[in-house]
Design brief:
It contains four helices and seven strands. With 251 residues, it is an alpha+beta fold. Among the domains are: 45 residues; 91 residues, 2-Layer Sandwich (TolA/TonB C-terminal domain). The N and C termini lie far apart (198 Å). 9% of the residues are buried.
Length: 251
């Protein structure tokens, strides 16, 4: 009997365990089904909202504001001047008498003059001005400045210098020096340079030896004094000339 009680208790315990397992499986299945159905329905709602948003067109832009009302610009009225005889609207109450003094007629005025002018004035002057003054001036005019003094023309030089070759080329008469006997006896040879001054007519007025042997200088100076040259002019004016002549003494 005790064994039957033990088996009966074991059977009841096993039945309870199976019932709990089956119940848990059923609830788990129901919960899973509910979650899946909820997810499917949510996705369907989202798809429908997206399709609705895609199919809806954007709202039209607002209409432009109405144009402003045109301002009332008054039209100009044309006033025509009356022509012909027009009667006075108000009758004059007093008529002035004509002046007894005869009108003054100026016969010596000029066109553009002013009243109170003086003879000899110019158009554009002012009363009280000075005859011969500057028009529109307010006082006596200052005398004009004196003209500048002419620049003096520099005088051409009265004497110029020529080189020996140019001077000798303008000679019209040449005089050769005589060989001094003392220099010949001493067998002295060489060149003597003589500086000469020529006047405006081409004549030698002075001569002096610059170099050479002393025994030959006097003969060279005497010969140079006898030379004659063509007159030299500068800007059309005859001038003096200074230059040199070289004499060669050879035996």
């Amino acid at each position: 009997m005790f064994e039957n009680l033990v088996e009966s208790a074991q059977g009841k315990q096993q039945g309870r365990s199976a019932y709990f397992v089956v119940t848990a499986i059923i609830w788990l299945a129901v919960l899973t089904t509910a979650i899946v159905i909820g997810i499917i329905q949510y996705n369907a709602v989202l798809n429908e909202s997206e399709d609705t948003a895609t199919l809806l067109a954007p709202p039209p832009p607002p209409p432009p504001p109405p144009p402003p009302a045109a301002a009332n610009i008054p039209k100009p009225t044309k006033v025509e001047a009356p022509t012909g005889m027009v009667s006075a609207k108000i009758t004059p109450t007093e008529i002035k008498k004509p002046s007894a003094a005869p009108p003054q007629i100026y016969t010596g005025g000029v066109s553009g003059g002013v009243e109170g002018g003086v003879p000899g004035g110019v158009p554009g002057g002012v009363p009280g001005g000075v005859p011969g003054g500057v028009p529109m001036s307010t006082g006596p005019t200052e005398p004009p400045p004196p003209p500048p003094e002419p620049t003096p023309t520099p005088k051409p030089p009265t004497i110029i210098r020529k080189s020996g070759g140019v001077l000798q080329g303008s000679a019209t008469r040449r005089v050769e020096p005589s060989y001094p006997p003392l220099a010949k006896a001493a067998h002295v040879t060489g060149s003597v340079m003589v500086e000469i001054t020529i006047d405006e007519n081409g004549s030698v007025i002075s001569a002096s030896a610059l170099s050479g042997h002393p025994l030959l200088k006097d003969a060279a100076v005497q010969a140079a004094r006898g030379w004659k040259f063509a007159p030299t002019q500068l800007s059309g004016v005859p001038v003096k000339v200074i230059g040199t002549i070289t004499f060669n003494f050879q035996m």
